[in-house]
Amino acid sequence: MKFRVLSLLLCLILVLSLCGCNFAKNVSEEILGGDSDTSVTQEVIDTEKYDMIDKSLVDFRTSLYTGVSLNKGYESLKSEEQKKCYEGIAKNVMYVSKEPSDASYPIAPVTLNNIELSEAQLHLVISAYTMDHPQIFWIESKFSYYTQDGVTFLQLNSGMSADEIRDTAKHMSEKIEEIFDEIDGDLTPYERELAIHDAFASRCEYADLDAAGIDDFRVYTSVGGLVDNNAVCEGYSRSMQILLSMAGIETYYVFGTGNEGLHMWNVVNLDGVWSHLDVTWNDNESGIRYNHFNLTEEEITQDHTLSPFFWELTEEEICGGTSGLAESFNIFVPECSDDDSSYYAKNSIAVMNFDEATLEKIAQALISSLDRGEEVIYLYLDPASLVYDNAIDKLFEDEDKPLIFDCIEKANNQIYYTQIDDSSVEIAEIPERNIVCVYFSQVEYYY
Q: What pTM does this model have?
């Protein structure tokens, strides 16, 4: 018999496994193939011991749009044995023990007949299930299992009691409803994504792990993002999964690194075109930014690194081995190569020179921004015809008169309800995208 207490990988920290794998065969050779006559033991769950959660409590929906199911985790599993385990988790996760054990509430265990899954395979299956079910917010990172005589036994745990789950689901539903109350019902998929992105980012703050405590699992879940308005990247990503899937937009999270630490963000499917979306990094202390809104893989990897796929790692790397340090891995990362769906591609003004027509185009963008109440424009400094730093100097730092002031003067001459304060101009440079963000404010004006 083998019995191990293990830990799933949480974003931003490496959780230590109490026991690691003892072997390091390549997973692509050992794990991913082979079908057999398998079944999940259909035991009657003891309702005296377990409290059932009604699935409808976490079946979040909106009348505005038809939701989409998430199943790429399930589809990525390579064997029937793995899929049977996934299905067992889906059934039993709704049954939570009435009595706690070590501050957790055991979930009804999954027993698999004629199946022996390795530790790495269980990591894969659990990751596939949680990737498809961000609304199942109560699963803790640790799990235990044993295999014996052709049977695999898997024990997951809940960080909440059944009553706490029900109460939290109710609050989450209310918070979600508040977000969708701000969103129109006739938006394109891109417009829905943008509206949800802004509504969520305006509510959620990045969690101070020192204050929240490293053991506070809520910040890593959709509870932190949607109920507490306080989460780390994992909570941001899972929350966006729920919201976007409710709006009919397929989205998953991916693992990687950013700023030299573990990180998680989303991939989003808009009409068959996949892009990378990092809401965490867009949620800036000074306001919402769009530097990481619908990027290609080439663009996202300028400051993010994707974790390897599961099948590219050994069992020891997946499980942590004797060191206890497990590698993060991805199950599903689609090709993201279309650069037309990024925020800046859709909303920036292309600048190829500084002739009068271009200055007038910038002036009109300033006026349109005022009409929308945004007080910001985005300029794309075309690298085919301009050197980025030189263009910045000419627009904003010229000793005689920066050209942006000509644009503001042109705009002010055409509007009568307000005026742009030329002393309020601030910029944020994004040289890796050839973008400069121009922020400004208005002054009262009486005509």
A: 0.86
